[in-house]
Amino acid sequence: MLYIKDIVKTYKRGVRANDGVTIQVGAGEVVGLLGHNGAGKTTLINQVAGLTVPTSGTIRVDGCDPVAEPSKVRRMIAVMPQSHAPLTGVTPRQVIKSMARIRGMSKSAANTRTEELIEALDLGEWADTTGERLSGGVRRLTAFGMAAASPGQVVMLDEPTNDVDPARRRLLWEQIRGLANRGCAVLLVTHNVVEAERSVDRIVVLDSGKVMAEGTAAQLRSRAAGDLRLELTAADIDGLPSLPEHIATAGPPLRASRRLTIALESSAAADALTWAQRLRASQDIDEFSLVPVGLEDVYLDLVGGESTSNGEEEG
Protein backbone atom coordinates (compact mmCIF):
# COMPACT_ATOMS: atom_id res chain seq x y z
CA MET A 1 0.00 0.00 0.00
CA LEU A 2 2.73 2.48 1.03
CA TYR A 3 6.16 1.90 -0.52
CA ILE A 4 9.16 4.08 0.30
CA LYS A 5 12.49 3.11 -1.26
CA ASP A 6 15.92 4.76 -0.79
CA ILE A 7 14.47 8.21 -0.08
CA VAL A 8 17.00 11.01 0.25
CA LYS A 9 16.01 14.56 1.12
CA THR A 10 18.83 17.09 1.14
CA TYR A 11 18.29 20.65 2.30
CA LYS A 12 20.49 23.70 1.94
CA ARG A 13 24.08 23.41 3.10
CA GLY A 14 23.98 19.71 2.27
CA VAL A 15 22.00 18.67 5.37
CA ARG A 16 20.30 15.31 4.76
CA ALA A 17 16.96 15.09 6.58
CA ASN A 18 16.40 11.63 5.09
CA ASP A 19 19.32 9.47 4.02
CA GLY A 20 18.34 6.34 2.10
CA VAL A 21 15.10 5.58 3.97
CA THR A 22 13.22 2.42 2.95
CA ILE A 23 9.87 1.51 4.56
CA GLN A 24 6.82 -0.49 3.51
CA VAL A 25 3.41 -0.38 5.19
CA GLY A 26 0.79 -2.90 4.13
CA ALA A 27 -3.00 -2.65 4.26
CA GLY A 28 -4.25 -3.36 7.77
CA GLU A 29 -0.85 -2.64 9.35
CA VAL A 30 0.22 -0.01 11.91
CA VAL A 31 3.89 0.87 11.59
CA GLY A 32 5.52 3.14 14.15
CA LEU A 33 8.25 5.54 13.04
CA LEU A 34 10.29 6.05 16.19
CA GLY A 35 13.00 8.65 16.69
CA HIS A 36 14.20 11.77 18.46
CA ASN A 37 13.00 15.21 17.43
CA GLY A 38 14.91 16.09 14.29
CA ALA A 39 15.41 12.47 13.22
CA GLY A 40 13.69 13.06 9.86
CA LYS A 41 10.23 11.66 10.63
CA THR A 42 8.09 14.67 9.71
CA THR A 43 10.15 15.34 6.59
CA LEU A 44 9.38 11.82 5.41
CA ILE A 45 5.63 12.27 5.95
CA ASN A 46 5.68 15.55 4.05
CA GLN A 47 7.23 13.81 1.05
CA VAL A 48 4.60 11.06 1.04
CA ALA A 49 1.91 13.75 1.18
CA GLY A 50 3.50 15.57 -1.78
CA LEU A 51 4.30 18.65 0.29
CA THR A 52 8.04 18.21 -0.20
CA VAL A 53 9.81 16.71 -3.22
CA PRO A 54 12.45 14.04 -2.50
CA THR A 55 15.99 14.67 -3.70
CA SER A 56 16.10 11.05 -4.85
CA GLY A 57 14.36 7.74 -4.26
CA THR A 58 10.89 6.33 -4.84
CA ILE A 59 7.55 6.77 -3.07
CA ARG A 60 4.39 4.96 -4.14
CA VAL A 61 0.93 5.13 -2.57
CA ASP A 62 -0.99 2.16 -3.91
CA GLY A 63 1.18 2.41 -7.02
CA CYS A 64 0.83 6.18 -7.48
CA ASP A 65 3.70 8.69 -7.38
CA PRO A 66 3.09 11.74 -5.10
CA VAL A 67 5.38 13.85 -7.31
CA ALA A 68 3.85 12.91 -10.66
CA GLU A 69 0.23 12.58 -9.42
CA PRO A 70 -0.07 14.82 -6.34
CA SER A 71 -3.81 15.43 -6.58
CA LYS A 72 -4.61 11.74 -6.94
CA VAL A 73 -2.35 10.77 -4.03
CA ARG A 74 -3.84 13.41 -1.74
CA ARG A 75 -7.26 11.85 -2.28
CA MET A 76 -5.79 8.49 -1.22
CA ILE A 77 -4.15 9.62 2.01
CA ALA A 78 -5.11 11.31 5.26
CA VAL A 79 -2.61 13.22 7.39
CA MET A 80 -2.75 14.32 11.00
CA PRO A 81 0.06 16.90 11.24
CA GLN A 82 2.29 17.49 14.23
CA SER A 83 1.04 21.07 14.61
CA HIS A 84 -2.38 21.90 15.98
CA ALA A 85 -5.20 22.18 13.46
CA PRO A 86 -6.53 25.74 12.93
CA LEU A 87 -9.79 25.59 14.90
CA THR A 88 -10.44 29.22 15.83
CA GLY A 89 -14.14 29.96 15.53
CA VAL A 90 -15.18 26.40 14.65
CA THR A 91 -16.15 23.38 16.74
CA PRO A 92 -14.93 19.77 16.66
CA ARG A 93 -18.29 18.65 15.29
CA GLN A 94 -18.13 21.19 12.47
CA VAL A 95 -14.58 20.48 11.34
CA ILE A 96 -14.86 16.68 11.46
CA LYS A 97 -18.10 16.81 9.48
CA SER A 98 -16.64 19.32 7.02
CA MET A 99 -13.59 17.15 6.42
CA ALA A 100 -15.79 14.13 5.74
CA ARG A 101 -17.78 16.14 3.20
CA ILE A 102 -14.63 17.52 1.54
CA ARG A 103 -13.39 13.95 1.21
CA GLY A 104 -16.53 13.01 -0.72
CA MET A 105 -18.92 11.56 1.86
CA SER A 106 -22.63 12.28 1.54
CA LYS A 107 -24.23 14.61 4.10
CA SER A 108 -25.90 11.70 5.85
CA ALA A 109 -22.75 9.55 5.93
CA ALA A 110 -20.69 12.50 7.13
CA ASN A 111 -23.11 13.15 9.98
CA THR A 112 -23.03 9.49 10.99
CA ARG A 113 -19.24 9.23 10.88
CA THR A 114 -18.84 12.47 12.83
CA GLU A 115 -21.08 11.25 15.64
CA GLU A 116 -19.26 7.90 15.68
CA LEU A 117 -15.90 9.62 16.19
CA ILE A 118 -17.19 12.08 18.79
CA GLU A 119 -18.57 9.20 20.84
CA ALA A 120 -15.57 6.90 20.33
CA LEU A 121 -13.09 9.61 21.39
CA ASP A 122 -15.28 10.87 24.26
CA LEU A 123 -15.47 14.36 22.76
CA GLY A 124 -19.15 14.95 23.48
CA GLU A 125 -18.51 17.49 26.23
CA TRP A 126 -16.58 19.75 23.79
CA ALA A 127 -18.17 18.81 20.46
CA ASP A 128 -19.84 22.22 20.10
CA THR A 129 -17.14 24.34 21.77
CA THR A 130 -15.09 26.61 19.50
CA GLY A 131 -11.42 25.79 19.06
CA GLU A 132 -9.94 28.72 20.94
CA ARG A 133 -11.60 27.41 24.13
CA LEU A 134 -10.34 23.83 23.76
CA SER A 135 -7.41 22.24 25.58
CA GLY A 136 -4.42 20.96 23.64
CA GLY A 137 -5.51 17.35 24.15
CA VAL A 138 -9.02 17.96 22.80
CA ARG A 139 -7.55 19.78 19.81
CA ARG A 140 -5.33 16.76 19.10
CA LEU A 141 -8.31 14.41 19.29
CA THR A 142 -10.22 16.71 16.96
CA ALA A 143 -7.33 16.68 14.49
CA PHE A 144 -7.37 12.89 14.57
CA GLY A 145 -11.11 12.95 13.94
CA MET A 146 -10.52 15.13 10.88
CA ALA A 147 -7.99 12.64 9.51
CA ALA A 148 -10.12 9.59 10.36
CA ALA A 149 -13.41 10.96 9.06
CA SER A 150 -12.79 9.56 5.56
CA PRO A 151 -9.22 8.28 5.65
CA GLY A 152 -8.59 6.74 2.24
CA GLN A 153 -5.99 3.99 1.85
CA VAL A 154 -3.03 5.45 3.78
CA VAL A 155 -3.21 7.31 7.10
CA MET A 156 -0.19 9.19 8.49
CA LEU A 157 -0.35 10.39 12.09
CA ASP A 158 2.38 12.69 13.42
CA GLU A 159 2.62 12.44 17.23
CA PRO A 160 -1.14 11.79 17.58
CA THR A 161 -1.17 11.29 21.37
CA ASN A 162 0.67 14.50 22.31
CA ASP A 163 -1.22 16.38 25.09
CA VAL A 164 -3.95 13.71 25.25
CA ASP A 165 -4.91 12.52 28.74
CA PRO A 166 -4.32 8.81 29.58
CA ALA A 167 -7.99 7.75 29.41
CA ARG A 168 -8.64 9.29 26.01
CA ARG A 169 -5.23 8.19 24.78
CA ARG A 170 -6.47 4.62 25.15
CA LEU A 171 -9.58 5.48 23.17
CA LEU A 172 -7.41 7.09 20.50
CA TRP A 173 -5.28 3.95 20.16
CA GLU A 174 -8.46 1.90 19.74
CA GLN A 175 -9.49 4.13 16.86
CA ILE A 176 -6.03 3.91 15.28
CA ARG A 177 -6.28 0.14 15.39
CA GLY A 178 -9.79 0.46 13.99
CA LEU A 179 -8.43 2.26 10.92
CA ALA A 180 -6.06 -0.64 10.30
CA ASN A 181 -8.90 -3.11 10.77
CA ARG A 182 -10.77 -1.25 8.02
CA GLY A 183 -7.84 -1.93 5.68
CA CYS A 184 -5.89 1.31 5.99
CA ALA A 185 -2.10 1.34 6.00
CA VAL A 186 -1.17 3.44 9.05
CA LEU A 187 2.22 5.13 9.47
CA LEU A 188 2.49 6.64 12.93
CA VAL A 189 5.25 9.02 14.01
CA THR A 190 6.18 9.00 17.69
CA HIS A 191 9.04 9.41 20.12
CA ASN A 192 7.10 7.60 22.87
CA VAL A 193 8.90 4.26 23.14
CA VAL A 194 6.41 2.71 25.57
CA GLU A 195 3.42 3.47 23.35
CA ALA A 196 5.22 2.16 20.29
CA GLU A 197 6.12 -1.08 22.04
CA ARG A 198 2.53 -1.73 23.11
CA SER A 199 0.49 -0.51 20.19
CA VAL A 200 2.06 -0.97 16.74
CA ASP A 201 2.70 -4.00 14.54
CA ARG A 202 6.21 -3.04 13.45
CA ILE A 203 8.66 -0.35 14.48
CA VAL A 204 11.14 1.57 12.34
CA VAL A 205 13.85 3.38 14.32
CA LEU A 206 15.06 6.52 12.58
CA ASP A 207 18.09 8.55 13.62
CA SER A 208 19.84 11.37 11.75
CA GLY A 209 17.69 10.58 8.74
CA LYS A 210 18.70 6.91 8.54
CA VAL A 211 16.84 3.69 9.38
CA MET A 212 18.75 2.17 12.27
CA ALA A 213 16.54 -0.89 12.82
CA GLU A 214 13.18 -2.34 11.82
CA GLY A 215 11.01 -5.16 13.16
CA THR A 216 8.43 -6.10 15.74
CA ALA A 217 9.00 -5.05 19.33
CA ALA A 218 10.07 -8.61 20.15
CA GLN A 219 12.52 -8.70 17.24
CA LEU A 220 14.08 -5.41 18.30
CA ARG A 221 14.31 -6.48 21.95
CA SER A 222 16.24 -9.57 20.84
CA ARG A 223 19.07 -7.24 19.74
CA ALA A 224 19.72 -6.15 23.33
CA ALA A 225 22.57 -7.46 25.46
CA GLY A 226 21.11 -9.79 28.08
CA ASP A 227 17.55 -10.61 29.04
CA LEU A 228 17.24 -8.41 32.14
CA ARG A 229 18.15 -5.00 33.50
CA LEU A 230 19.06 -4.43 37.15
CA GLU A 231 18.80 -0.78 38.09
CA LEU A 232 20.10 0.55 41.41
CA THR A 233 19.49 4.07 42.72
CA ALA A 234 21.72 5.50 45.44
CA ALA A 235 21.03 8.38 47.79
CA ASP A 236 23.81 10.46 46.23
CA ILE A 237 26.09 10.36 43.21
CA ASP A 238 29.00 8.95 45.20
CA GLY A 239 26.95 6.21 46.81
CA LEU A 240 26.76 3.72 43.94
CA PRO A 241 28.31 0.36 44.89
CA SER A 242 30.84 -1.61 42.90
CA LEU A 243 29.56 -4.70 41.15
CA PRO A 244 30.68 -7.99 42.77
CA GLU A 245 32.85 -10.17 40.57
CA HIS A 246 30.64 -13.24 41.02
CA ILE A 247 27.72 -11.59 39.17
CA ALA A 248 28.13 -12.22 35.45
CA THR A 249 26.97 -9.28 33.33
CA ALA A 250 25.92 -9.19 29.68
CA GLY A 251 27.59 -5.85 29.07
CA PRO A 252 29.39 -3.01 30.83
CA PRO A 253 27.44 -1.36 33.68
CA LEU A 254 26.14 2.11 32.88
CA ARG A 255 26.41 4.86 35.50
CA ALA A 256 24.27 7.98 35.25
CA SER A 257 24.14 10.34 38.22
CA ARG A 258 22.73 8.28 41.13
CA ARG A 259 21.69 5.35 38.94
CA LEU A 260 23.56 2.17 38.00
CA THR A 261 22.10 -0.03 35.24
CA ILE A 262 23.43 -3.54 34.68
CA ALA A 263 22.62 -5.85 31.74
CA LEU A 264 22.17 -9.45 32.89
CA GLU A 265 21.41 -12.87 31.50
CA SER A 266 18.58 -14.73 33.21
CA SER A 267 21.07 -17.14 34.78
CA ALA A 268 22.53 -14.29 36.87
CA ALA A 269 19.17 -13.04 38.15
CA ALA A 270 19.20 -14.86 41.50
CA ASP A 271 22.68 -13.64 42.48
CA ALA A 272 21.90 -10.09 41.34
CA LEU A 273 18.62 -10.01 43.24
CA THR A 274 20.24 -11.26 46.46
CA TRP A 275 22.95 -8.60 46.19
CA ALA A 276 20.44 -5.81 45.52
CA GLN A 277 18.23 -6.88 48.44
CA ARG A 278 21.25 -6.85 50.73
CA LEU A 279 22.19 -3.34 49.60
CA ARG A 280 18.63 -2.14 50.15
CA ALA A 281 18.45 -3.71 53.63
CA SER A 282 21.72 -2.03 54.64
CA GLN A 283 20.49 1.29 53.16
CA ASP A 284 23.46 1.44 50.77
CA ILE A 285 20.91 2.16 48.02
CA ASP A 286 17.49 3.80 48.03
CA GLU A 287 15.79 1.39 45.66
CA PHE A 288 16.30 -1.16 42.92
CA SER A 289 14.39 -2.87 40.12
CA LEU A 290 14.98 -6.03 38.11
CA VAL A 291 12.97 -6.05 34.89
CA PRO A 292 13.01 -7.72 31.45
CA VAL A 293 14.83 -5.81 28.75
CA GLY A 294 12.53 -3.32 27.04
CA LEU A 295 12.38 -1.58 23.71
CA GLU A 296 13.66 1.59 25.36
CA ASP A 297 16.95 -0.18 26.16
CA VAL A 298 17.35 -1.15 22.50
CA TYR A 299 16.31 2.30 21.31
CA LEU A 300 18.87 4.06 23.47
CA ASP A 301 21.55 1.60 22.35
CA LEU A 302 20.73 2.47 18.73
CA VAL A 303 20.36 6.24 18.88
CA GLY A 304 21.83 7.30 22.22
CA GLY A 305 20.22 9.58 24.75
CA GLU A 306 20.65 12.90 22.98
CA SER A 307 18.59 14.30 20.16
CA THR A 308 20.37 14.89 16.87
CA SER A 309 18.52 17.65 15.07
CA ASN A 310 18.98 18.40 11.40
CA GLY A 311 17.58 21.88 11.87
CA GLU A 312 14.83 21.43 9.28
CA GLU A 313 12.01 19.91 11.32
CA GLU A 314 10.68 19.45 14.81
CA GLY A 315 9.85 15.77 14.47
TrEMBL record:
<protein>
    <submittedName>
        <fullName>Multidrug ABC transporter ATP-binding protein</fullName>
    </submittedName>
</protein>
<keyword id="KW-0067">ATP-binding</keyword>
<dbReference type="GO" id="GO:0046677">
    <property type="term" value="P:response to antibiotic"/>
</dbReference>
<dbReference type="InterPro" id="IPR027417">
    <property type="entry name" value="P-loop_NTPase"/>
</dbReference>
<dbReference type="Pfam" id="PF00005">
    <property type="entry name" value="ABC_tran"/>
</dbReference>
<dbReference type="GO" id="GO:0005886">
    <property type="term" value="C:plasma membrane"/>
</dbReference>
<keyword id="KW-0813">Transport</keyword>
<dbReference type="GO" id="GO:0005524">
    <property type="term" value="F:ATP binding"/>
</dbReference>
<feature type="domain" description="ABC transporter">
    <location>
        <begin position="2"/>
        <end position="233"/>
    </location>
</feature>
<dbReference type="InterPro" id="IPR050763">
    <property type="entry name" value="ABC_transporter_ATP-binding"/>
</dbReference>
<keyword id="KW-0547">Nucleotide-binding</keyword>
<dbReference type="InterPro" id="IPR003439">
    <property type="entry name" value="ABC_transporter-like_ATP-bd"/>
</dbReference>
<keyword id="KW-0046">Antibiotic resistance</keyword>
<dbReference type="GO" id="GO:0016887">
    <property type="term" value="F:ATP hydrolysis activity"/>
</dbReference>
<dbReference type="InterPro" id="IPR003593">
    <property type="entry name" value="AAA+_ATPase"/>
</dbReference>
